[in-house]
Design a protein that fits this description.
Blueprint (H helix, E strand, L loop, with lengths): L4 H11 L3 H10 L4 H10 L6 H4 L5 E9 L2 E9 L2 H4 L2 H17 L2 H20 L4 E8 L3 E6 L5 E7 L4 H14 L11 H17 L7 H16 L5 E2 L2 E5 H4 L5 E8 L1
């Protein structure tokens, strides 16, 4: 049967295969694009790499939970249209479940990247990429997923309520802390900040005798902006996150963004 150029172009866009090969595959498939893709796959001629050159700037985050463990993954795509698609959202949730089932991030990433390349890119028609992923467990694990499904926070506490953990996870999502607490800031980062402050003070002609006092104040502000425990609580700016812990310890946090 004759194959129209529109169908050939559609198959070419989905696969990255040359026009001649697309035409031949469609003729063999009786004009059915999905069958033609299967034919090309069997011949090893698909070129998902073409899609991989395109930016995957959209996407979403999905969670899965079982036996006290929580898995989180970020799956990126090219357009918000795909990110809002039910099938794409279902796939992201299935990925999170698969990570939990496999129980190992490295093994899961290898599986996911292979599946994306050989199955998902052709099915959805966009470049897809696996972003951050992880499995989280502890005495109390709190998660927060923003309504757009694109920003999430995860925290692990040594104790306390689930509500507290979720509130702190929301803090992580909203305020994007870099460090857990002042003690966890690398010495190299601190020295870099101090050098910047000294240069600023020098340019402002501040007397060296008061530099230490000013730098101390600047560092306190640095901790408040960048360390989770020192940040002002977004629900009550009269309190810092450390004031909410009531003797419990903040073990770790993670922020994901699609």
């Amino acid at each position: 049967m004759p194959i129209d150029i529109k169908t050939i172009s559609e198959l070419r866009d989905k696969t990255g295969i040359g026009i001649g090969d697309c035409k031949a595959a469609l003729e063999e498939a009786g004009g059915d694009i999905n069958t033609a893709i299967e034919i090309l796959r069997k011949k090893g001629e698909l070129k998902a790499a073409k899609k991989a050159d395109r930016a995957a700037k959209e996407g979403l985050i999905a969670f899965a939970e079982k036996d006290g463990k929580i898995a989180a993954i970020t799956l990126n795509c090219e357009t918000d249209f795909v990110a809002r698609n039910e099938d794409f959202q279902k796939t992201a949730s299935e990925f999170a479940g698969k990570l939990l089932e496999m129980g190992d991030e490295n093994s899961f990433r290898a599986w996911a990247e292979d599946y994306i390349k050989n199955e998902l890119v052709m099915k959805i028609g966009e470049n897809l990429q696996l972003g951050g992923c992880g499995i989280f467990s502890g005495a109390v694990v709190g998660t927060y997923l923003h309504s757009n499904n694109k920003i999430a926070g995860i925290v692990i506490l040594s104790g306390g309520s689930q509500e507290l953990a979720k509130d702190i996870a929301m803090q992580v999502a909203a305020m994007s802390p870099k460090y857990l607490n002042p003690e966890s800031v690398p010495a190299a980062d601190l020295e870099k900040e101090k050098e910047i402050y000294k240069e600023q003070l020098k340019n402002e002609n501040k007397p060296e005798a008061i530099w230490d006092k000013i730098i101390s104040g600047k560092l306190a502000k640095f901790y408040e902006e960048n360390c989770l425990t020192e940040q002002l609580f977004i629900k009550d700016d009269e309190k810092k996150i450390k004031d909410l812990l009531e003797g419990n310890q903040l073990i770790a946090f993670t922020r994901l963004e699609a």
